[in-house]
């Protein structure tokens, strides 16, 4: 039986934190569940999952549908698309069997590359290598999520770029239905002996997925701002996520020009977050004046997650007094009114 290899290359950068990350997790489970209902898919489809944030890794090596076990997807800072493509090309070399006089190789691999952001690493060399050596023997479909994805870079990579509409909680479940339907159709066609017809994007619009056109607008900058901090009691990390507040029409005041970010939520993190984040951090800063809303600590319930140590890191704080910085172990004294207004803090990558 010739295998049909499907690679998912998934963006797990911090802008995905919260609901999108949970949805992506569910989408992967649902794709496998739906494909298992299809006898042709069950026989041919093999799946591999590569995740990328600041660091890249294969979280599920190529496996058949029955043996597939949904992984816990990681989360990290940064969007290393170039490295993710390098990892994909390595996995194709290792996992996809070529046809030789002694064996029938695998069917042409299909890759779903899903991203909601802009690359934070260099992509030129990887894209060139993909176009020269892989584009003709693999089918890559780029899927953007939300309005901040860099469609220009993705269009250099593949002609098949689609976008999931922003703002609806249904986006990723529609993606899951579309992927399982197209992959099942592909495996059925291969099963009855047709030559590989290729995954069709024609049905995408039926489920609300639109093709990305060359004329599509450049991505909007700085939609999401995130910060990491640690609980001063439990030392556990958390992520604060803020979204740009659209400027009010007719308001030309200074605050509108500066950009205001409203709190979306605070999410507890595991230590693996730092393993998936890029080592370098950007020098960009955003003033706390630009932020609206400070949530309590998700680990201990302290009233603010926005207390700044001299080492430049954030921790939670429950009011005035002395506490130990969970990052650098320094003793920090917070007075009345500190930890709230007007200081600049280092800002994570998107
Ligand atoms: Zn805490
Ligand atoms: Zn410190």
UniProtKB/TrEMBL annotation:
Domain of life: Bacteria
Gene3D superfamilies, sorted: von Willebrand factor, type A domain (3.40.50.410)
VWFA domain sequence ranges: 5-183
Ranges annotated as spanning the membrane: none
PROSITE patterns hit by this protein: VWFA (PS50234)
One Pfam family cited in the UniProt record for this chain: VWA
Protein name: VWA domain-containing protein
Species of the source: Halomonas llamarensis
């Amino acid at each position: 039986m010739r295998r049909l290899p499907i690679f998912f290359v998934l963006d797990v950068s911090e802008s995905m934190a919260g609901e999108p990350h949970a949805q992506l997790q569910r989408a992967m489970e649902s794709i496998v569940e739906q494909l298992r209902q299809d006898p042709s898919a069950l026989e041919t489809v093999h799946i591999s999952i590569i995740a990328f944030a600041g660091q890249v890794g294969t979280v599920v090596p190529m496996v058949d549908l029955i043996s597939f076990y949904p992984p816990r997807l990681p989360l990290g800072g940064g969007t290393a698309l170039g490295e993710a493509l390098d990892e994909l090309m390595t996995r194709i070399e290792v996992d996809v069997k070529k046809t030789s006089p002694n064996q029938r190789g695998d069917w042409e691999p299909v890759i779903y590359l899903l991203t909601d952001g802009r690359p934070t690493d260099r992509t030129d060399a990887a894209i060139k290598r993909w176009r020269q050596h892989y584009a003709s023997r693999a089918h890559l479909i780029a899927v953007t999520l939300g309005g901040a994805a860099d469609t220009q870079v993705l269009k250099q990579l593949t002609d098949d770029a689609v976008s999931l509409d922003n703002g609806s909680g249904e986006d990723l479940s529609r993606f899951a239905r579309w992927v399982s339907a197209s992959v099942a159709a592909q495996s059925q066609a291969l099963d009855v002996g047709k030559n590989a017809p290729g995954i069709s994007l024609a049905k995408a619009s039926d489920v609300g997925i639109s093709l990305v056109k060359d004329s599509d607008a450049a991505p909007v900058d700085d939609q999401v701002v995130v910060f990491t901090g640690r609980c001063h009691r439990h030392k556990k990390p958390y992520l604060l996520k803020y979204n740009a507040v659209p400027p009010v029409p007719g308001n030309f005041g200074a605050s509108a020009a500066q950009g205001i970010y409203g709190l979306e939520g605070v999410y507890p993190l595991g230590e693996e977050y730092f393993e998936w984040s890029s080592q370098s951090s950007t020098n960009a800063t955003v003033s706390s004046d630009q932020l609206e809303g400070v949530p309590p600590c998700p680990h201990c319930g302290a009233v603010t997650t926005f207390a700044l140590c001299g080492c430049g890191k954030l921790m939670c704080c429950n009011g005035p007094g002395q506490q130990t910085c969970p990052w650098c172990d320094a003793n920090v004294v917070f007075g009345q009114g500190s930890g709230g207004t007007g200081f600049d803090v280092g800002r994570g990558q998107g």
